[in-house]
Structures are given as C-alpha cells and as structure tokens.
Amino acid sequence: MIRWIRPGPARGTIRAPGSKSYTHRALAIGAIGTRTLRIRHPLDSEDTRTTLEGIRRLGARVARGTGVWTVRPRYREISRATTIQCRQSGTSLRLLTGLAALKDHPVRFVGEGRLPVRPIEPLLHALEELGARVRRPRAGRSLPFTIRGPIAPGSVRLSAGDSSQPVSSLLIALSAFDRPSVVRLVGPVVSAPYIVASVALLREMGYRVDGSDRRFAVCGRLRPAPNSVKIPGDASSAAYWWAAAAITGGNVSVTGFDSPYPQADLRLLTALEQMGARVRRRGSTIRVLGPLRRGVRFDLTDSPDLFPLLGVLAAGAPAGPSILRGAPHLRHKESDRWAETVDLVRAFGAQVHGTKRRLEIRPSREVAPIHRPGATDHRLVMSAAVGALAARGPSRVGDALSVQKSYPGFWSDLAHLTRRSDGAP
C-alpha cells in the first residue's frame, strides 16, 4: 500500500499514543508478578501484541480492553514444549527469552524478516551462565533456538554493544527471585536510557534494583506491587510531529507527557532547539514551532531510533552541514537502517558523506519529492512522510502498512495535522 504525501505545514494538537517501550516492559514485568496488573493507556500495535501473545504462551492470562490491558500472571503452568513467534519484534524476542529461561520446559523461538539474523548471542550466553540450556540454530543465524530453564540467581557479565534489550531482559527475569543477583556490563553500552527505563518501571512495580551505568544489583521485591500502571505518552511517536512542525514552519502540540518516566527520544527536542526551532513545555503538553534555521551535530548512541528522522531534518535545514554519529548498531535493526537513511536523505536531494560511524549531511536549496514505494521499515516510512511535507511537490511513500508495527494511528494523525483527507494524492 502506497501513500501520497502533499507538501504543506503541520499544525494542531494530538495526544501521543502509549509508549511502545513501556508497554513491552509492563507486560513482561506483569508476567513475573504475583497479582493481577492493569496496564492503562497501552500501545496496541503489532510489536506489543507479539509480547502479549508471548507471555500468554508462557502461562499468563491477558485481556485486551479499550485503553486497559489486564495481566494475570501464572494463570497456568506450561507443561510441555511451546513455541513463541516473535515476528519482527526484537524487543519481544529479548524480553521473552529472559522470561522463558525461568521455565522448566523447552521454549522454542522463531521470527520473521530480519529478526532471525539480529544479535541475541550475548543474552543467550548470560542465561547459560545462570543455568539455562540453549539449542542454537546453524552458524550465522540467531533463530530458531530453543531455551530451557530454570535459571538461578547469580552474578553475570553481559555485553550491551549491539543492543540494551538483553540488559532489560535479565533485570526483569532476575527480579522474579527473592535472592540477589548482579548484572555487570562489559564493553560499550548503546541505548542506555532504555535500561534506565526498565529500572524505573521495575522500581515503580515494587522491585529492588540498585546501581546504574555498568553494575546492577537485583534483589527481588521491596514492597507490594501496585495493581495498575499507566503507560506514558510515546516520545518516539511524538517525535515525528515535532519534526513535522519544525521542517514545515508549522506549529504542533502533543499531549500526554505528564509522567516522570525517562524516554530516550525526548532528546529530539534538544536537537530541534539547536536547529533553531522553538520548544514550549506546559503541563503535559510539548509544543514545537518551526522553522528550522541551521544544521545540527548530534550523537545518537543513546537514541538510535531518531537517526532516520534527524537525517530527514538535516536534509530540510536551510543551512548546514549536519553531523550525525554514534549509531553503527543501526545496521542490525529491521533493516540496515544506516544505509537506508543515507539513501532516503539523498533522495530528498541532500549530499551525504561519511564513514561507518559518522555522517555529514549538506542540504540542497529545496527538498526534492521522493518516490519510495519499496520502503518497509516503519521508522524509515514515517520519517520519509515527515520529510515529504517539506518537498517542492507530491511524494509517494510505502509500505504504508508498516506503521502498524509501532504506530497504527500514524496516517490518521498525519491527516489531522495537515488538514487533508487520509492518504489523498
């Protein structure tokens, strides 16, 4: 399915959908609990439904209501081998692997798209050190594999150079025990704010996790768990509308940011201010007013999902250059997101030069229309749609259905903010 995008300013107010990251984590933490948990304002997307179905396969009972999901942990014990289909969700795969290692039955993991070649070995190795048994696939692949627990509390070392998700997986799984464990990180750490997010939610749910940076002590439950948790608005989704306001000289407000939970992609607001846009915060609403005035220098080590969007903003800035660096692990996402971003930015007419770790983007005088019907990575598609709003003529962007992975309401929100029919040419 292809979408036509006509250029024009983005203006208006919307409510951010629930955070994908926190919905995943709330489901996983709910699955290790001892009482029913109500998850309010969850994100209902392909990825979060994958995690929901995964904890069902591991014995939880989950009910999806309008605006509230209910997790009843340990509803049934799995009594035989089971298979979990993770589709294309890396977060689901890693969080569910840690939960599966708590079980004394084999759990087989399978996936689709690029997921069978995305990195998971550091997590499997750490779980083996804690007592799990793993049957791996053939060399050069991550899936399918079978894991059987139960693991035991202990001290383990873990690499987080390709993803922070294995760290979150271990912290959540080890929180199921009353006895202490220690997780030590070795080598470089990417996407560190997502580890902070996992720790924050675990603590909110009554678990004791001490430490930060490179050493975490997990000591089980500190106090009774609350019976509900509210998912914050998703900064990763709101980022597209803040960027749309900035690149088109528009004015967009996004509500739903009344939560103290940390979110990596709020860093986009810092980049927008550096590029000359104005950012206003009032209560739970964050408003951005364009236009952009200059390029930006930005390190994406902690917020790699912003890379395609910042590339598009750099292509639409009236003066450059922009320098983006710090995200070589993007090559292991749903697509080779580094290479795909380079191609997209060039399609918009910008000049791109760089290495495996650093990208320099010089904008042209005007943003060129694009024709990208073959795009399938959800973050590339949404970033392309934002850039197309600033082009000199209509653009075509696909696969439009890819947004179901993380932001099912993207196209209707785009239509609302641009005051035109959904997808009209």
How would you describe the overall organization of this protein?
- By secondary structure, the chain is of the alpha/beta class.
- Mean pLDDT is 93; it is low at 421-425.
- Helix 3 (90-100) links the parallel strand 6 and strand 7 (107-110).
- It contains twelve helices and 23 strands.
- Helix 1 packs across helix 6 (192-204).
- It folds into two domains: 3-17 and 233-418, UDP-n-acetylglucosamine1-carboxyvinyl-transferase, Chain; 20-220, UDP-n-acetylglucosamine1-carboxyvinyl-transferase, Chain (Alpha-beta prism).
- It has helices at residues 20-31, 46-57, 90-100, 121-129, 165-174, 192-204, 235-248, 268-274, 307-316, 337-347, 378-388, 410-418, and strands at residues 3-5, 11-15, 37-40, 61-64, 68-72, 82-85, 107-110, 133-135, 145-148, 155-160, 181-189, 207-212, 215-221, 228-230, 251-255, 278-282, 285-289, 297-299, 322-325, 351-354, 358-362, 371-372, 395-397.
What does this entry show, briefly?
The protein has 425 residues and is an alpha/beta fold.
